[in-house]
Amino acid sequence: LICDAMKNHPNRSNVQEKACGALWNLAINSENKVKLVNDYNVVPLICDAMKNHPNRSNVQEKACGALWNLAINSENKVKLVNDYNVVPLICDAMKNHPNQSNVQEQACEA
Question: What is d(CA 66, CA 46) in angstroms, rounded to the nearest whole number?
């Protein structure tokens, strides 16, 4: 349902924010980290949310938080950098929201 909501409402920042927040929470669990990346392919959805809503600090914060939790797994970390190229998106979030401490914190952790 989360992935469907993200796919069906890419331009609704509130949907993207809540979905990224839900993925952030789900990715706390070690098994979920792997499933979310390999089975549910959530990383492109998170990246799209970041690209579609660069000026929405809440979306950027939740997206970076989700990426952070997903990257705790070593295999995911390599995929996030090499396959999904998330580093420029994280850097953009930091550049676009220099005074938003929540975005800065989650981006640094990611």
Answer: 8
Calculate the CA 56 to chain-centre distance: 13
CA 5 to each of CA 12, 20, 97: distance values in angstroms, whole numbers, following the listed order: 10, 11, 25
- Can you give the pLDDT at residue 98? 95
DSSP line for 33-86? HHHHHHTS--HHHHHHHHHH-TT-HHHHHHHHHHHHHHHTSHHHHHIIIIIS--
pLDDT digits (tens, 9 = 90+) for 53-63: 999 999 999 99
Q: What pTM value is reported for the model?
A: 0.95
